[in-house]
User: Fold Ankyrin from Penicillium chermesinum.
Amino acid sequence: MEPHRTFQSPWVMNHQLVELCELLESMEAEEWLSHRTLCAIRMFAAMDESKDAYLKSYLASSPKFQNEISYSFRIPYFNAHNGGRRTPPPTFLNTGNPEDSQDMITDIIRDDCACCFKFLEAIVPGLTPLSYNVHGWNFLSMATVHGSLNVFKHFVQRDRTIALHMISKSFAGQTDCWPMPLSFLHPDTNISFPFLSLWVEQLTDLRMVGKKCITAAIHPIDKIHFCQFFHLGMATLMESIGASIENAQISESDKSLSPFSVGTTSWHGATANSADFMNRMAERSALSFTWSNQAGDCPIHWAVRYQNLETALWLYDHGAIPRFSIPMEETETIWHQALHETGEKSPMIFEMLMPSCNNQMDQVDRYAVASLFHQIMLTTMDCVMCAAVTTIDNLEFEMLREQLKAEGIQKCKLIWEDFVDVDLSPERADAAAKLHNKAVSVMRYLELGSLADAMMCAPVEEEQDLDEDFADG
Assistant:
């Protein structure tokens, strides 16, 4: 039985065949011609052979049902302005869009209900894995995009020659078989590791598909995505079919299609992954992790942007040199990424980068420094409160509180003394002042004489000059 794909409808189960058909005819099409109702009808028909034959005969002759089916799939169409190639609309991949789920067969494939598809095949002549829905997508491609393992298995078992021929053509870059399955192995499409394993198993049985063909068919954009999101098992599986993902680089010819800047490499994408994945990259990539893309970003910039301390430390320990003088945006530098106020690991990343700053703190404005100041104080306060809950010995707690307070204030003073002030826009100056005042309030918490007072005291919100606030703290 397929997991969580069955649906039992009491009104279907409790009606006789004739009454059921009369009821269906009296209802509007959108009320019953759906995946869930079809599941219930199929289950009812499966109770015995006579019911199965009767219902299939009824549905095959029902104008209402046939109208729905004629809407759900059509013969392939071609675009005369594209050399006769089929051009499916790209909006289909926007999962969650109501327009993506307007036909029964799309729902059946998306919900991975192979038994419903088999039921339809017995009723609808000409329904095959290479039939197309109204959006212009063939069903085999849809099963691949949605990771529908059971439907994919059925398609391959039903007509292995056609299915594998279609896959081989897509690897050969023939756009009439678009989309090529590997083009959509992104987390948003919920492709599972078991599905990809099965897909590769079917693929490797097709001897005509060579490694060069497979590797050439995967776009560099996809390879960078794979480095971002694949775990080591997936990367090894891709390597087993000759699809190396470690040496991708965005070129000028990819510029119009790519969300990444020219020069972005697999190393940039891998910084969102783990240190183990970075070790794999070091073993297999011929590219350097010190290269910048056209926007001036090195991989370590991306690691800081992702707030991924693990890969940032890996790059730093292996000799990556953050070029802080290159702005990543018009008004922001690598420092702004490191000091981002919402980043929980900002203080640790900042501390890691500090020894290499080389008097480049003039790249940072007061807003970024206030953000870090706030974050350090909150982190220190969290440690104090955690210690208060877990520590029984009051003397031990007081010593820990004093130590944390001293460390927090010392870090903030170090940052403040090294900070070179720059002019700010009124909006950013106001934001910096508010952040700084919050941090000073936390410092005042730590100065109070008792834990009870610290927990009861409200933050100080008055607006003051930043330097005076710091002196008060």
